[in-house]
Amino acid sequence: MDTTITGSTADSTLGNVTDRGHTTVDRVAQSAHEAIDRLASKAGPAVERLRTSTGNIGSTLREKADSLGELEEQWVENTRGYIRENPLTAIAIGVLAGVLLSKLSSSR
Fold first, then answer.
1. Per-residue pLDDT for the chain (108 aa), expressed as one digit of tens each?
2. How far is CA 85 from CA 71, 77, 82, 96, in A?
3. What distances in angstroms separate CA 10 from CA 1, 16, 17, 22, 93, one per listed residue?
4. E-strand spans in the chain?
5. Residue 62: helix, strand or coil by DSSP?
6. CA proximity to 98, closest of 87, 80, 75, 106
7. What radius of gyration, in Å, describes the C-alpha atoms of the chain?
8. % helix, strand, coil for the chain, step of 5
9. Spatial separation of the C-alpha atoms in residues 89 and 84, rounded to whole Å
10. CA-CA distance, 91 to 98, in Å (whole number)?
11. 29-66: string of b/e by CB count within 10 Å (b at 16+)?
């Protein structure tokens, strides 16, 4: 049996293997590109939805902070009005609160 391979046969075989390798690499690269394109097309809208929802949450938080600020201003104004109308009662409440706090802190 003659197992001698001529130069042109070896070159031909090597060329076929190289061509198949290139074809395989090209197919894998094309599949990778398609997968990346599919992911990008899905990620874009998801990122936009996330951006919109975080913007809405920020607006809602600002509105809540504003309403809490208004509520604080009303509470402070009502307290000032009560103290102006009932100064002795306000002083008595302050003294009692001080006594209670000192009792609580000294027992520890």
1. 555 556 677 667 767 777 777 788 788 888 888 888 888 788 788 878 888 888 888 889 999 999 999 999 999 999 999 999 999 999 999 999 999 999 999 876
2. 21, 12, 5, 19
3. 18, 10, 11, 18, 105
4. none
5. helix
6. 106
7. 40
8. 90, 0, 10
9. 10
10. 11
11. eeeeeeeeeeeeeeeeeeeeeeeeeeeeeeeeeeeeee
Q: What is the pLDDT of residue 4?
A: 54
In the numeric block, which tokens belong to residue 47?
């990122």
59 token code pair: 């607006």
Tokens of 95: 């003294």
- Amino acid present at 61: L
Helix (H, G, I), strand (E, B) or coil at 108: coil
